[in-house]
Fold this protein.
Amino acid sequence: MTPVTGIDFERITLRDALDLAVLIEEEARDRYEEFADQLAAHDTPEVADFFSRMARIEERHRTELLERRRTLFGSAPSAVDRRALFDVEAPGYEAARAFMGVRQALETVLAAEVKAHTFFSEALPRVKDPELKVLFQELREEEVHHQALVKAELARCSEKPDDSEAYADDPNAQ
Amino acid sequence: MNAFLAPNDYKSPLKPIWCPGCGDYGVLQALYRALSAVGRPPHEIAFISGIGCSSRIPGYTTAYGFNTLHGRALPIAQGVKLANPDLLVIVAGGDGDGFSIGGGHVPHVIRRNVDLTYLVMDNQVYGLTKGQLSPTSPRGLKTVTSPMGSLEQPINPLLTVLAYGAGFVAQATPADMPGMTALIEEAIRYPGFSFVNIQSPCITFGEEDQQLKAHKARMKPLASLGHDPANQLAALDLARAYGTELYTGVFYRNPSPPPTYDALVRQRQVELQKGEPRSRSRVLDGYLKA
């Protein structure tokens, strides 16, 4: 199942590609905000804060791409709809867990960055326009950079792997 | 013509409190997107639900909402639709609410063909009350009320609604969000009773092989099997695989939808208005004749 539907990468314009990139960041921002709300509602403030920080980072990426789009194309209407994409850089809903730890949260983010990298890697061979190829390469490389940042945080994380499961309560039966 | 409404225009400020990882989060997002695609403003929509985790949905939208009694969403939704046929009425609930406590209402809403959309978030367990056996729990499932494994044959929601003659029957999973969004939109647009069984896993009390990760590996779009949604017999045959295969897509769409109950009621009202107005005493005479 492809995370983007109805977009022909052989024919996509630079404007549409930038709009798509903006929406990819927007979707990731929204998902991290949702995760932050979910974890805050389940008494896991540390991880909720972490996901809020991720949402702010994705928002920064979105704004940067949007500025670029505006500089190049002004306020010309977008032909790309949010419904065309799903879970490109956003982690899947199944990734969130009650009482998950920071390590698990970092692993969730890393998996999402890898997924985004795969998306751009798979789209690149289909892109014909040289200007567009440069953009997609740039976006793909950014995902590599993000992965490195997350891996570095994982290395610094003092929480042991699977620690979070150890103190999570089992569901109580009635 | 309404101005463009974005998915977030249907999102209420109330934050969902489902367990993280619950399938209902995906359903809610798909619903926002489907409503945006349909384009009806929130004040023209009414969400009716019963009781259960998924029945919290009305509170998470900006549309009108009524969180009713356990199992009683369908009768209330029918009343809402008949009172105001211009409303887009969507019913949301779980498998227990729909096929156990409220199971008796299902055949009647279908035979009347009231123009509403029924979204069942089928997780095969009573999650809100902490994991009891539900009507769609598979045989052998160990729960707090079946510690040695269920001895009961589960209800097959797809086969049930098809057998009663539902005009639109589909199945979706949050593991395929674009597919689920498109199905909900199609169900809403169908002129008559439409039913979408959404395999929405319970992350806390559900089985491992029923989680979204497993769905991603197991799901089979009906379109890829070459299924013709106009073929009711083929739909019935495919629906028998509920519980063993995870088919997604439209099982059945009546190519010639019959008139809806609300349209027939409206027609009757118009006909009656054409005749001589009945005085109150004449109405009472009808009761005294016997």
Observations:
- Chain A has one domain: 14-75+90-159.
- The two ends of chain A are 39 Å apart (CA to CA).
- The mean pLDDT of chain A is 89.
